[in-house]
Amino acid sequence: MRSISDFTVAPRSRSATTKAEQTTAVAQSIIQEEVSARDKKTARLREMRLAMAEKTAGEVKAAPTRAKRAPRKKPVAS
Fold first, then answer.
1. Among positive and negative, which fits the CA dihedral 9, 12, 13, 14?
2. CA atoms of 73 and 65, how far apart (whole Å)
3. CA 22, CA 14: separation in Å to the nearest integer?
4. Which residues contact 58 (CB under 8 A, 6 or more apart)?
5. Using CA atoms, how far apart are residues 12 and 21, in angstroms rounded to an integer?
6. DSSP secondary structure string for all residues of 28-59
7. What are the Cα distances from residue 17, in Å, to 4, 14, 22, 27, 28?
8. What is the tens place of the pLDDT at every residue in 47-71?
9. CB 16: neighbour CB atoms within 10 A?
10. pLDDT for the residue numbered 4
């Protein structure tokens, strides 16, 4: 008759370096995903900005001018 220990496998212990390597790999993949997402967003915003610039290139708007205030009168010393 077989004992239970014949059917169970002893868990293999991982070394600290293996865990550290796995953590590093996961962290680097997360960072790479964030970088690619940021680059996509930057490209999209750049295209939108250039499209807006082309659209408004023909329209030249004059800057609004402020009316100048009259200088203050100095009180006369009596």
1. negative
2. 24
3. 11
4. none
5. 17
6. HHHHHHHHHHHHHHHHHHHHHHHHHHHHHHS-
7. 32, 8, 8, 15, 16
8. 999 999 988 877 766 677 788 888 8
9. 7
10. 67
Q: Please, how many CA atoms are within 13 Å of residue 60, restricted to the half-sphere of its CB? A: 0
Token output for 59: 């329209």
Structure tokens at 62: 């004059």
Q: Residue written as tokens 């915003």?
A: 45
As a whole number of angstroms, the distance between CA 26 and CA 16 comes to: 15
The residue whose two tokens read 């402020």 is 66
pLDDT digits (tens, 9 = 90+) for 9-37: 666 666 777 888 999 999 999 999 999 99
Q: Which amino acid is present at 5?
A: S
Tokens of 12: 């293999």
